[in-house]
Amino acid sequence: MPIMFQFENKRLLLWLVEFQEDKGNFSIYKLMRYTTDLMELHPEAVVIPAVLFTDRKKWRTDVMKKLESKMADRTFVHFEYIFCKLFDFNAAYY
Known about the structure:
Blueprint: E1 2-6, E2 12-20, H1 28-41, E3 45-53, E4 66-71, E5 74-80, E6 82-85
Parallel strand pairs: 2-3, 3-6
Antiparallel strand pairs: 1-2, 4-5
Protein name: Transposase (putative) YhgA-like domain-containing protein
C-alpha cells in the first residue's frame, strides 16, 4: 500500500507499507521491485519501504532485512526497509 505525502515546498514522499501476516511469504526481492517501480514512476519522490509483520507466533528464524551486492570498495546494490514487528510493541505505551 503506497501512501503519498506532498508538502508545501513541493517535496514528495511515498511511504510503501507492506502488511505481512506470515513471514514465510515475505520476499525482500519483491519489496525491492515494488520500491524501484515506484521510484521509476515518481523519480522526484523519496520512497520509503516499510514492512509491518503482524504474526503473533515467536520466530525461530528472522527475515532478511537488507540486500547488498559489493565487490572490493564498491557497492552495486544496497537495499533495506523499515522493519516492524507489531506485537513487539505494547499498545498501552502509545
